Amino acid sequence: MSSESLLKPSPLIPVTRTDIVQSLIDGVDRYNPDNVSILEDYLGQQLQNEEYDLMANLAILKFITKLTELQQCLEQARFREFWEIYGDESCKELASEAIGFEDAIRKVNLLSSYLNYNPEFESFIQNRGLEIKEEVVYIPKNADNDAKPTVIRENIKFERT
């Protein structure tokens, strides 16, 4: 084995990988949502330079996979599973910049068994003028949900033929 072959860069560590990207990949910040933009910029550089960095791209893929899994749970109305996955701290960090994210998800379906019932949820319900009794949400009567009988009178004229 020649000494020249030992000095070649590893295909797993491209020569264009910056020290910042290397420290992200090697450290605990690999899956920190705050660093996604750095990894996305690096992916753009890879595409422009026709290069490939497996480890950096796997870190980005981890974020995308988690978001895709959450999206599928919502689309398929698997709310319990959504809240289990979302309970992971890294997911909450990803959604931290989306103000009102959790409330928006809860608006999709108001069944408490699916909605991660907790004090925050109770506050969410009470802020909307709803009541909770024995973990059941009661919606007060309003113009949209109060059934009233309606009498319809029709006048039909028949012409002689």
Automatic annotation (TrEMBL):
GO cellular component: eukaryotic translation initiation factor 3 complex
SUPFAM superfamilies: ARM repeat, Winged helix' DNA-binding domain
Gene3D superfamilies to which the protein is assigned, alphabetical: ARM repeat, domain 1, Winged helix-like DNA-binding domain superfamily/Winged helix DNA-binding domain
GO molecular function: ribosome binding; translation initiation factor activity
InterPro entries xrefs: ARM-type_fold, eIF3k, Transl_init_fac_sub12_N_euk, WH-like_DNA-bd_sf, WH_DNA-bd_sf
GO BP: any one term: regulation of translational initiation
Name of this protein: 5026_t:CDS:1
Organism whose genome encodes this protein: Diversispora eburnea
